[in-house]
């Protein structure tokens, strides 16, 4: 059997690190893109490193040489280096795609987010979906996955719950099924192997926001105290941020607040439960004190 060679871009991020582990577990040959040599220390048993910046096309020439599959979860999560969403979520991935096409890479998997195709008016998705369209129009076999929120994103509920009360917009009945990065990484590799073009991916359990708040409060062993704010406060917050801050500041918050005002239910996968994740996180935080 011919072992596939996979390039992972975004490998130092939350999902990327799990994808690298999953690929190696299944016997793939893995090349990891890093921005500086110190990032090598994050990885064990990787076959090859490529030092470069996707935002600088000249620094990534040859990055996809001899590569069969490209995986990219490249995007801005925490704003830095003065880069915009268009610079990173769109242009950096576009630069990588050009190299992949030049080297006749077999397939390219890109990670967007749930409902990105319906929320192009948000800055973060304007850039992501511009790249999705470019990828779909290219001559490469593509796979676009749209995961729901990560368990790591749900720590916002946990952080609120620590104080003993969780604040929600509206009645708290909108539903979502977040997924753990480890579960998502397995699905990413599965879908690449299956040749799936597009799919939404979520966790095994569907929760209302009220249920999420309760789970977070229980993890801290707090009484259930949830305050419901009128929805106009959410809309007003988005307006304030758009008016008085740059997209670098408001982008992630705009996305979060918009997602809170609708159901976000993706196809259900995985085995890791949010309750268990919250308990582990609380134990970690408590142990840090001692």
Features:
9 helices; eight-stranded parallel β-sheet; 2 domains; Rossmann fold; 290 residues; alpha/beta; two-stranded parallel sheet; 41% helix; globular
Question: Can you describe this structure in just a few lines?
Answer:
With 290 residues, the chain is an alpha/beta fold.
Instruction: Give the strand order, joined by hyphens, for the main sheet.
Output: 3-2-1-4-5-6-9-12
State the distance separating the first and last CA atoms: 51 Å
Supply the CATH architecture of the largest domain.
3-Layer(aba) Sandwich
Largest sheet: 8 strands, parallel
Under CATH, the homologous superfamily of the largest domain reads NAD(P)-binding Rossmann-like Domain
Number of helices: 9
The tally of strands reads 12
Residue stretches low in confidence (pLDDT < 50, at least 5 long) are: none
- What portion of the residues fall into strands of 2 or more residues? 15-25%
Would you tell me the structural class of the helices and strands? alpha/beta
Explained architecture:
The longest helix has 18 residues, at 85-102. This protein has 290 residues and is α/β, with parallel strands linked by helices. 41% of the residues lie in helices and 17% in strands. The protein is globular and about 55 Å long. It has 2 domains: 5-149 and 179-202, Rossmann fold, CATH 3.40.50; 207-288, no CATH class. The protein has helices at 14-25, 85-102, 123-137, 155-162, 181-194, 209-219, 231-244, 247-259, 274-288; strands at residues 5-9, 29-34, 48-51, 69-72, 107-111, 141-147, 166-169, 175-176, 198-202, 207-208, 226-229, 267-268. An 8-stranded parallel beta sheet has the order 3-2-1-4-5-6-9-12, with helices on both faces. Strands 7-11 form a two-stranded parallel sheet. It has a two-stranded antiparallel sheet with strand order 8-10. Strand 5, helix 3 (123-137) and strand 6 form a beta-alpha-beta unit. The protein is built from 9 helices and 12 strands.
């Amino acid at each position: 059997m011919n072992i596939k060679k996979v390039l992972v871009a975004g490998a130092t991020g939350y999902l990327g690190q799990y994808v690298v582990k999953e690929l190696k577990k299944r016997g793939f040959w893995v090349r990891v893109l890093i921005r500086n040599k110190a990032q090598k220390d994050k990885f064990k048993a990787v076959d090859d490193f490529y030092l470069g910046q996707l935002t600088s096309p000249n620094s990534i020439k040859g990055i996809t040489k001899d590569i069969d599959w490209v995986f990219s979860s490249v995007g801005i999560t925490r704003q830095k280096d003065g880069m915009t969403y268009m610079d990173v979520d769109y242009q950096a991935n576009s630069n990588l795609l050009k190299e992949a096409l030049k080297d006749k890479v077999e397939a390219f998997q890109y990670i967007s987010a749930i409902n990105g195709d319906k929320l192009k008016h948000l800055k973060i998705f304007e850039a992501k979906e511009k790249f999705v369209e470019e990828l779909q129009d290219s001559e490469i076999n593509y796979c676009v996955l749209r995961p729901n929120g990560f368990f790591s994103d749900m720590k916002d509920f946990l952080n609120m719950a620590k104080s003993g009360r969780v604040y929600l917009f509206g009645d708290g009945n909108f539903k979502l099924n977040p997924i753990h990065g480890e579960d998502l990484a397995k699905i990413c590799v599965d879908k690449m192997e299956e040749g799936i073009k597009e799919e939404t991916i979520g966790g095994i359990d569907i929760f209302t926001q009220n249920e999420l708040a309760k789970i977070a409060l229980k993890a801290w062993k707090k009484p259930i105290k949830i305050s419901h704010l009128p929805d106009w406060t959410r809309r007003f917050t988005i307006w304030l941020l758009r008016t008085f801050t740059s997209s670098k500041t408001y982008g992630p918050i705009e996305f979060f607040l918009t997602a809170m005002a609708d159901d976000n239910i993706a196809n259900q996968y995985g085995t890791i439960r949010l309750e268990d994740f919250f308990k582990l996180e609380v134990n970690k935080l408590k142990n840090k004190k001692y």
